[in-house]
Amino acid sequence: MIRHFPTALVFAAFTWGSVAGAQTTQTTQTAAPSPAPQATATPAPVSDEDPDDSVLNRSQPDFTLINLPTGLRLPQWKSAFRVTHRFTRPLGEGDFGNLAADFFGLDSGAVIGLEFRMGIVPGGQVGFYRTNDRTIQLSGQYDLKQQSDSFPLGLAAYFSIDGTNNFKDSYSPAVGLIVTREFKEHGALYFEPIWVNNTNQLPSELVDDNSTLLIGLGGRIRIRPTVYVVGEIVPRVDGFDPGSTAASFALEKRVGGHAFQLVFSNTFGLTMAQIARGGVENLDGSDNWYLGFNISRKFF
Amino acid sequence: MSRSTFFRSLRWGLFIATAALAMGGCDEKLSDLTGPTPNLKPTLSSIQSEILSPRCAGCHTGNGRFLPGAMNLTEGHSYASLVGVASIEKPALQRVNPGDPENSYIVHKVEGRAGITGARMPFNGTPLTDGQILVIKRWIELGAPNN
Predict the structure, then answer these.
(1) Which residue of A109, A243, A257, B54 is most buried, as measured by CB atoms within 10 A?
(2) What pTM was estimated for this model as a whole?
């Protein structure tokens, strides 16, 4: 655990001023009798005409589920930051005493990712995500249609490309659609067909499939005012599909502009191409599950 | 949704789709993998010219009743010597079992697997690279055609 302490320290220092600001803002908002934009959490938008993207959306409070993107809009020229952490010790290895001795995996190494995203146009955002295996993912997302009284689903176009070795070697572009169904303030469900090219890292002459069509399925359920249960599963329906079907679930706590997720996952996949390559599978076909966490911070 | 909003959404959707399609050709280069034989492809003619002729045919000449001469890997004869032919050293295995590289004795020999009879091939030479072996395996996996 100690080896990950510097990461947490840097993140804490990086966000401290903003946290204080957010807390102040929230306190002020709570005390204010007038319905200031951020003071009132709204249910699913009823109109797609220039929505105020800075208003907290309790049904989908963050830009990602666990690994998959959500349809949440990022206000123009505002940004968000995220740290992802997956400890590499399988939770099923050894008995409970061994697991406790390793502090449930926190003593092990980890796959770590840092993400920064920014809204560049109304409804459009771009992201930069780097994982510690030197993969960099650039992503873009554009809101095509918002859920409303007349249309029961939110639609967003998604695009990403990741490149290994600091974006110098193997490139894997992805394009897809994020379909969102919000349920007032109770949560949201997601259906995300995404095609990822060059998922197989061998040349196409040597493989049957070099791309993957995956269906991201997920949901976020609000069980307490600021607590959510989050889950996602990513079956591959066509193309290259090694390993097991990637799946993750998490318990999420939101505090102001922060969200903390305690993650249980069978994959180290963080970028879209990594997710498409599936979960970690043992020789006997069984899964390994791992502990992890995500911390995200909105700067607005 | 207003008309302008619709067209703005359409424009961005098309932009993203176009960007994805433009980059849809991403792939690793086979030549990066095959090292000393950058032109190697998973076809018999390519394997012949890049590997069998320069690395194998010097000994596997087709002359004599015993190995290595008994196996003819010279150009024009390799297919008949390899595909569907039981190996002399391990008769239970075919030299090349079409579609099944794991049960093709030539793969065992060039990988130097435990259980082979005699030495790893190429004999007394630099072993084939992993990439070269992958290409041979792919050719077998594709049915070992005489192409």
Answers:
(1) A257
(2) 0.77
